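Throughout our pipeline, every protein is held as a single compact record rather than as scattered files. Nothing more is needed to write down the fold, since each code stands for a local backbone conformation. For reference, a complete record is included directly beneath this paragraph.
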Amino acid sequence: MPATTLPPPSQPTNPHSQPPSHTTEATDYLTKHRVPHILQMLTTAVLFERPDDPKEFMVRKLEEMRNAKARGQSLVLFTRDNLLSLFRIFDVTGKGHISLEQYHEAMKNVGAANPNPKPAGADTNRIPADTFVEEALRALYKS
């Protein structure tokens, strides 16, 4: 009986390497297209605006985002008043300032990408409302 020979593998085999998982591919796709960021911005805008028809509101906001992108602009879904209202939610004691930790949490809530890590007031752990609003708008325009 002749010996059977196997053809050489087309690529070297590494027993520890694994093909990319579907989960990894999906995560990469979502990240590349900023889907989590966009969904967070839309969700937060819906919660602030509380429109009668949330689906129509989100469709309109997505169209505004697309149009702004086509013009080479950023679309910020939040007004100064919206951001000031958010600040007041975090300023539970009504003292006119929030902690640096609250600042970062609030920035996440509005979907601000890469906000200033040390805004004015960070050294004393007291971020005033006007600083919060300006930093949020700056970060949102960068998004």
Observations:
- Residues 54-70 form the longest helix (17 residues).
